[in-house]
Every structure is written in structure tokens, then in C-alpha cells.
Amino acid sequence: MDAQKEALQRIISTLANKNDEIQNFIDTLNHTLKGVQANSSNVIAELDEEFDGLYSILDEMKESMTNSIKQEQAHKSQELQNQLSQCSNALENSEELLEFAARSLDIKDPEEFSKAARQIKDRVTMASAFRISLKPKVSDNMTHLMVDFSQERQMLEALKFLPVPKAPEIDPVECLVADNAVTIVWRMPEEDNKIDHFVLEYRKTNFDGLPRVKDETCWELIDYIKGTEYTLSGLKFDSKYMNFRVRACNKAVAGEYSDPVTLETKALVFNLDNTSSHLNLKVEDSYVEWDPSGGKGQENKIKGKENKGRSGTPSPKRTSISSRSPLIRGSRDRFTGESYTVLGDTAIESGQHYWEVRAQKDCKSYSVGVAYKNLGKFDQLGKTNTSWCIHVNNWLQTTFAAKHNNKAKALDVTVPDRIGVYCDFDGGQLSFYNASSKQLLYTFKTKFTQPLLPGFMVWCGGLALSTGLQVPSAVKMLQKSENGLSGSASSLTNVTQ
After folding, report:
1. Mapped to the 3 state alphabet, what secondary structure does the chain carry?
2. What global pTM score does this model have?
3. Quick one: which of 79, 232, 236, 367 has the fewest CB in 10 Å?
């Protein structure tokens, strides 16, 4: 009976997913139906405008062509109405079957339950929901009925609707997603020397498969593309996927869109967790700034009672200057004492990830790295066996070092404006790069035994965070070449529990 219940649960899940697909398709049909009606009205209006200057000899031609448009509208409307009716009936039957299946889970008698399960399985096999097509038979595009008579006034007897470019075909194999850029490649199904340019549209989504009508962002447009490929660069990958479609245009009219293509654009996206920050830090999603006035009374109290004899960054003599708007202050005392730390709000448990950090020019001291969740409230990044970082100190004299387990390795390189952080959780590797030149700064090699949180320490200044970044291609190549070389000091390499 347990096995049958599991099978029935899988059937229910399949039905629910299918219902969601059908509902999305119904929304698409409704949207297409409205588009047919709206676009039909638009082309009729444009047709009227063209005929205004030709009424003396074109009255009969106008009536004929208007009828053609209306017939096309009627044809498409009828096709869509028929599909809409079929899908609605299929969805209604499927919902009834889903409800019956859900009720069957409550049947206690094994024989009755087995009978119901077999009945449900048979009905699912014959369900129309799995046999109907989820692609509209017609589109809402009516541009093939548009006209331009500027060159045909001498040829009134031979008037025709303008030729419409065919829909291009996007080649997913040739498309490339790398370095937070997407290159889209397409081709025409047949040569058309009258094409003037292409229009590319794209949007972000968290849904795989067919684009949805509801709850989606609007399409963004790039016009007047002369070639058959285009690269979108500088993107922030803060959604799982992106939809793309393209259409060809001649001098007078645009053709139909290509079938949409969905490409995966997944990258690590996280914010700074203001609930994990030191009270002397002001935090927003991607920016943290040191503030000596925050929690000052509580800091003195803690130092007097709990932190006697602790050494660390000296108390600053001046405040940082910032033109930024007021930021959010930490809502609880996660870090205290001289651990001016804030963590990311997303744990890393597997995979390869990359993010970048930029420090204010006058920032006196900061650290960038990762830590386990159990980092102590007085602990500073790199001074425990559960945190790894690189540290920049511009107080009195400039020092640049990699730190772990209270050991430091001086780095004989120039401190970059932006630091890139590469974390390979499964491979046990944490590397830091000059984000501009992709020069390797330092690599820790260890075995991560717990989920990691990005960690940041700042004193007398501020840090700006950039996420939603793919691992750069240059970093991937450097990782391959650097593995096995002496990029890490053995004194800083260990396995933590």
C-alpha cells in the first residue's frame, strides 16, 4: 500500500504540473486572442490611412482587402476559440481527476484503495490533458496584411499585401552564456535580401520552458541589429533563466517572432545580512560602512566586562565621510568588540561561485573572505580555524596579507581597486583575484566541512559588494593552470572540522 501511495503521489504531482502548464497555455491563448483583435484593428486603421489618397480608384480594392483581414481575424479567432475550449475542458477534467486522486489518499481499506489507484491510473492514461497540443495553432500577428502603396500607385490593378519576412530561427547550440554576457545567434530559414535589420527582445525569468504571460517582466528590446548575432554584456544574473526572441524587418514591416529560446543564467546572488552585523556597521543590501557612533555605549560596556585584554584594530581617531543615504543598522548583537564584521545572507554548500568587492579609497582596514556559521561574536576573520580571508590595512602603513587560523601570509602584490573572490566548495579552494586584470592574489586549499558564508570586515571606510556574477572565463583558466602549483602557503592550509 505504501508503494501505491507513493505512485499515487507521483501521479498527483504530475497532474498538478500539467494543470499548471495548461493554465499557462490558456493564459497564452487569451493573450493571443486579444492580440489578434488588437492587431487586426491596427492594420485596418493603417489600411484606411493608405486608402485615403486613393479612394477615387481603390474603393473596390479597399473593400476586398478589408474582407481579407476580417476573414483572417475570423479564422484565427475561431482557431484560438476552439483551442481555448479544448484546453478548458481538459483542465476541468484534469482538476476533477486530481480532486478524486486526492480523496483516494484517505481510503483506509487496502482493496478499495487499490481499486481506486488502478482507476486513477487508467483515467490518467486516457486523460485529454496529456494529448492536447500546448502550442497555438495561429499567432496574433497580422502584419502580413499591412500595405504601402507609395510605389504601387501606377500599378493599382496588381496591388498585394507586402511580403513579410519569415521568422528567424535561434540556434541554442551556437548561443553562448559566459562572463555575465549572452551571445544570441540566429539564421533565416531561407535567404531574404530585402531584410533591413533585426529586432532582439529578452527578459529575465525564473521559469524554464515556454515563456509565461502572467507574472513576468516586460520584454526589453534592442532594435536595428544588422547582423545575425548579438551580445548582451554587463548583465547581472539575478534570475535563473532569460528568454530571447528575434524578428526580421524589411523597410516596411516586421515579421513574426522566432520561437523563444530559454537560456540558463544562474549565478550566486546574496545580500549583506544586517542582522549579522556589528553595531558599529551600517548595512544595506550590497554596501557596508563603518560608523563609530553605532552602539558606542554597549561597546564600552562589553569591553569592560567581557573583552579585557583583547587585542585588535585600534580605536579610530576620526569618522568616515560618506555622501550615501542613511543605511540600516544591525538589529542584533551578532558581532561585538573589535570584530567589525558582517556576513552574507546566503550559505554556500556546493558548487563554484564568484563575487567582487570594492573598498572606499580612504578605507583604513578591511577583510574579505568566508567563514563557517559558528564564527564567534568576538572572532575576527582569518584569526580562527573557521574563517579564511585576505586583509588590507592602510592604517599608518599599508599591509596586504592572507589570513587563516591566526596565521598571516604577506602578499607582495599591489592592492587592487576591486577584489574578486572565487569559492570552489567541493574542490576545497578559495582564491582571490584582481577583479580587473584577473591576476591571482592568493589561494587557500582545504576541505570545507560546513556551509560557508561570505564574510566582510571593515573599519574606517566602506565596502561595496557585487553579486550575480558568473565565474569569469579567465578565472576558470587560471584555476586549471594554478592547481597543483605553489599559490598557497602550506602554513595556512588545513582541514577544519
Report:
1. CHHHHHHHHHHHHHHHHHHHHHHHHHHHHHHHHHHHHHHHHHHHHHHHHHHHHHHHHHHHHHHHHHHHHHHHHHHHHHHHHHHHHHHHHHHHHHHHHHHHHHHHCCCCCHHHHHHHHHHHHHHHHHCHHHCCCCCCCCCCCCHHHCCCCCCCHHHHHHCCCCCCCCCCEECCCCCEEECCEEEEEEECCCCCCCCCEEEEEEEEECCCCCCCCCCCCCCEEEEEECCCEEEECCCCCCCCEEEEEEEEECCCCECCCCCCEEEECCCECCCECHHHCCCCEEEECCEEEECCCCCHHHHHHHHHHCCCCCCCCCCCCCCCCCCCCCCEECCCCCCCCCCCEEEECCCECCCEEEEEEEECCCCCEEEEEEEECCCCCCCCCCCCCCEEEEEEECCCCCEEEEEECCEEEECCCCCCCEEEEEEECCCCEEEEEECCCCCEEEEEECECCCCEEEEEEEECCEEEEEEEECCCHHHHHHHHHHCCCCCCCHHHCCECC
2. 0.60
3. 236
